[in-house]
Structure formats: structure tokens, C-alpha cells
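Appendix B: complex inputs.
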Amino acid sequence: MSLQVTNLEAELKEPQSLVSERDRAQYLAQLIEHRNPLVVSGWLGTVRDRALNLLRDQALPSTRDEDWRFTDLSALYRTTFQPVKPAIVTSTDLDTWTTSDLPIRIVVINGVFAPEHSTLDTLPSGITVQSLATAEEAIQPYLLQQQGMNEVFTALNTASFTDGVVIRVGKNQVIETPIHLLFLTVAGDVPVAIAPRALIIAESGSAATLIEEYGAIASSSRAMTHQESGEGTYWTNAVTEISLADNAQLHHTRTQREATAGFHIGKTAVAQSRDSRYSLTTLNIGAQISRHNPEIVLTGIQTETHLNGLTLAVQSQLSDTHSLIHFAQPHCIAKQLNKCIVNDRARAVFNGRIEVPKAAQQTNAAQLSRNLLLSSKARVDTKPQLEIVADDVKCAHGATVSQLEDEEIFYLQSRGLDRESACDLLVKGFAAEITEKVPSEKLRSQLLTSILSLIRD
Amino acid sequence: MIIENSDVILSVKDLSAEVDGIEILKGLSLEIKAGEIHAIMGPNGSGKSTFSKVLTGHPAYTVTGGEVTFKGQNLFDLEPQDRAREGIFLSFQYPLEIPGVSNLDFLRVAYNSKQKYKGLEELDAFDFDDLIRETLDIVKMNPAFLDRSVNEGFSGGEKKRNEILQMALLEPTLGILDETDSGLDIDALRIVANGVNQLTRPDNAVLMITHYQRLLDYIVPDYIHVMEGGRIVTTGGKELALELEERGYEWVTDKEPVEVGAR
Ligand SMILES: Nc1ncnc2c1ncn2[C@@H]1O[C@H](COP(=O)(O)OP(=O)(O)O)[C@@H](O)[C@H]1O
Ligand SMILES: [Mg+2]
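Resulting structure:
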């Protein structure tokens, strides 16, 4: 079952100008050629080489591929990305990305761990943070353990990353303060591609909160607006692997607030062992074209998973979320709520796949997709994709699409709010159900403020 | 209370209005002065709610004739929000639910919109909290309702109480109550009526729209108007309600008695 909603006038611009298969193959070869060299050689080099092999028989997708049907990457394929140069960043450059209620900060700039901007000396005991490039080989068994590592963009990240971070929460350690993990890009005068990488290891019985953010550092000296010359254009192709051991808990927030000149493709690959609890709150706000794939594999019994997502797409943005929850064991619970707010001619895509094989009896899964269209040319394609083989399961799903109702606006006007404030309040109400789960008051209000101002522009 | 020579708050002359091209109000006239409580009664579909929506500026209704002044100024010159800020308040027959917006935030935004318009001080969250807690008492509302989404999951009675809470907060010059009594049990009706009675003053006025005489036992009107077919057909004092109760609307709305089913 699929629900595709186009408002009255929105014309479908298909078929798109497809980039041919040969061109895409050449493009992939060029991406590989232009990837950043490793600074530190060693086991990481072997990992990259293995991924290169994987890429040999793979192709970059086009809209002919079912998984990319609504997401045309031609604009990405038409951009030639160069290796990224080292960037010098001052602490004031980071100001817009830090908040006082998130004192534990780990910063990665252009894919490279930046200890000088991170607050390593205030790390609580029980948690370790390392640069991936210099991590000891002992972490290698944790890397590439998740399913879906062969998928082309993920393999491309593995073949291209030069560094990243490893965060390990020790056994039975309970970390109260959220860990603020910032992946920031300093774009240059030519388009650059960045492959940020993170590995999160939550050992058994541990509990932690992680806020992972993606965005660009813009300062007046670094103009991000000259898109035509390619200046400021960048592509983040990110992968975060997360493993939760038995009885571990992770509260995870992921925001994508890339600059409008940016492209973003990201994977969050999670494996949950028995009795673990994982919650993921995603906010997809930036980038001209973005795609996020949260993929959760429930490898143990009695796990609990909560996915809450909010996408805002305005102007000509395209924002796609393809999620997967794969049940493999009995007695697991997963709840998913995905919301999209779409304005102007923007487009949002939500595809929520839930796999319940025979072994996963007593599964309890619920998925709801709620969408708010603010203009007659806005479009959302939302599709639950349930593959249920087990027979003793509870699986519910639903999708709604709405607009701001005149009656609601009038009710607020009759209380003295002007039309604009009334619309703001209604949109805020719609968004708040997701933003309120972000475990930082300052970040929550920043997010709501930027959502409202983006809608107004 | 009827006060000699008090100011005219609302003056409606020969008002007609339509919705979806169908004329609903057909030459309605009414005058409300400071201090007075008016009631409009009438059968379902006679246009009572339409009148309240036209006064508050609902976009679905088009005024096709007549004049309305509010405190001496042309009402139709004002946007809906400015009518509210100038002091018109409608307690909705069917209050809307607004998911995700806390009642407290909503009340504060509404209060501050009016303060700003009047050039008065807007209240921050702390000061507003003090104010609203005092106001809650007027409708005996549990503070827990402040943290819930506006009207979401409220019972019928709780929604109506929430409407009167807003009225208490915004202190309108003209409070219009559209069927505020319908669906209320007797305890809730007493609380709501008691709330309204605490809000009446010599310098404001109330227009109650109701179907039943019951409300008028608790909020005693100075005038009762009977509406039928989009206009006021009879006006009288509070005794009129009793007569209507006994003899039915046909008594005033039809010159000649009609057979059942003839209309
Ligand atoms: N928004 C609307 N669209 C169409 N018809 C309406 C609308 N509002 C009111 N009406 C019609 O106008 C007439 C009067 O309705 P209303 O004002 O609600 O009466 P009352 O409140 O006295 O019961 C009814 O016939 C009703 O169907
Ligand atoms: Mg009515």
C-alpha cells in the first residue's frame, strides 16, 4: 500500500533527466580517485581496500531503482567533487553549533576528529572517545559488523573515510549528560566530498545519550552562497555504526542541518542485543538533496526501539528517509512516528520498511506517518513497507496528510493572534511532538526557531 | 443590568450575510449597551451561530448588507484578530483542538497579543504563570489542564470551561457565548455560569446564544431575542424565556399556527 499525495497543481516532473549507467560508473570511479588519502596507514587502509573491492560490482542508483524512485541524484552526479583540504577552524566558528547545556562535545571537522575543539578533559569516567584513524586494532571487530554495509554509499564511505570517532560506553556505566557529537564541514571554493564516520559501542548494561549533528561552518569569510561557481557545495556521505550489547540503552538524536548548498546521504546502522533499548530522534532540515537510512536490526529478544523523525522540506529541497527495522527474535517492540512538513515546491519521501520473519513471534510494531503540506505545490510520498511472515504479531501502520485548517487558524485569530502567528503556532504544535524528545532545551528551541524561519522565507 | 444612558457597545442594523452563496442572515438588527446581558434564542438552523461568526469575522461568511459598529467603529474594517484585541470574544459552540500546543503557551500568546496591541506590557512565562493561576479559580479548573494540548482530549464540559477561562483572561468588552450550556451536566453548568457572572461589569456586555431556557436560570438576561430565519422576530425581558419554554418557538416565530411537518 502506498500513499502518494500531490496537491492540486503539483505537476510530476518525471521522467527525469537520467544520468546514464555508464556515466554513473565513470562518476563512481572518479569519486574513488578523488577520495582523501589516509594520513595514518595500517589496518584502516586494509578496511578501505576491502570496501573498494565491494564497490567494483556496484552501481550508483538512479530513479529506476525502486529504493531511489522518488529521489533523483542527477544534481549530485553532475557535480565533480575534489578531495577536501585541511581546514583551520577557530572556536568562534563553532559558536552557532554549541550550546551551554551540552558541555560534553566531540567535534569532527571535514571527517577528521578535532581534539582541540572537543572537551575530552571533561569526559565522564566510563566513556572513552578516540580518533578512528589512530584507534587500536582492537576496535576492528566492532567495525563493519552491521547489516547493509555493502550498500553502495555505505561502501563508498568505508572506502573513503580517513578518520572519524569511536565512542565506547563501558559496561554498566550510566552517563547522564548527553554527548554532543558534531560533524561539521568547511566547504571551499570547489565542491568537496566528506565521508564522516562514527562507531558507537554501548557495552552491556550501559546507558547514554548521544546528540549527533551534521552541518556546515559558515562565517562571513567563508561565503556559502555562491552556488553557481560551485563554491560552498559539498557532499556529506556519512555512516554511523552503533552496537548495543545486552541490556544497554542509548538515547540518540540525529540532526541534519546542512547548508542549502550541501548534499547529504547518511546511514545509521544499529544492532540491538537482548533487552537493549534504543531510541532515535531524527531531524532532517537542511541540504538541497538529502537521504537518511536508519537501519535497526534486532538481534536479541525483548528489545525496545523508538524511532521518531521530523523532516522539514522547503523551497526546492528534497528530503528522503528510508528506514528499516528488521526483527529477528521474538518479543521485540518497535514504535515509529515519522512527520514531514513540506512547503513551497519541496518534496519529502518516507519509506518505512519493517521486516518480521518467522522467528520473530510476539513482535509488537507500530508505524505512523503524519504529513503537513503547507503549499499547493508541496509533495510527500509516504509508504509503509511491511514484510510480515511470523503469524503471532501485532503490527499497525497508518499515514495521514493534512494542511493547516482554516477553522484552526480562525480559532486562533479569534483569540487575537494574527494569521502568521496562528500558522506558526500550528506548525510548532505539529513539530513539537518530535522536537520535544531532543534532550537539550537550547537545541530544542534552536530547532523550532529555525523550522519556523525556514517556513517563512 | 440595564443602565440609563450607558454607551452602546454593539449596534447591528439590518445585517444580512451569506455562506456558500446561501443567504442565512436576512436583516438582523440589535443593540447592546454597556452593562447589559442579552440572550438570543431560537430553533436550530435559525442562524444564531452564523451571527456569532459574522461578528468575529470568520472568512467563510460574507456580509451582503447592513451595518455593524462596535464601540462606535465599523466592525467590518477590522481583521478577526483586531476584533478580538478590541474586545470581542466568542466562546465557540465547538471549541477546536490544537495538538502539540500547550494550553499554557496558547493562553500566554493570546494574552500577549492583546497586551501588545494595547501598548501594554507583555508578560514573560513567570509573571503569566501567576496571572493564569489566579484566573483558573474563576472556572475552578485544575492547573493540570494548563500543561495539556489545547482542548485535546478534553470532555465537552472541560472545553467549555477552557473557553470561559480564555474569556476571563482576555476581559472582553463583548463576550459572545454560543451554546456554552449545551452538553454540560448541572455541576459544570453552575461552574461555567458562575464564572461568567463573575466577569460581568457595568462597562462590558454579554450576548448568550442558547437553545434552552436552563442557562438563563443561572445567567439572568436583561433582554431576550428570538431569532428565526436569520432575523430577530421578537424581543422581550427575561419572562419571555418561560413563555417560550411552555409554548414553543412557534408561538413567536409563526403568525399562524402550523401543522406538524408542514415546514
Ligand atoms: N459554513 C457553512 N456552510 C454551509 N452552510 C452553513 C454554514 N454555516 C451555517 N450554515 C447553514 O446556515 C444555517 C444556519 O446555521 P447556524 O447559524 O449554525 O444556526 P444555529 O446556530 O441557529 O443552529 C443552517 O441552515 C446551516 O446549515
Ligand atoms: Mg449554533
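The first strand of chain A starts at residue 3 and ends at 6.
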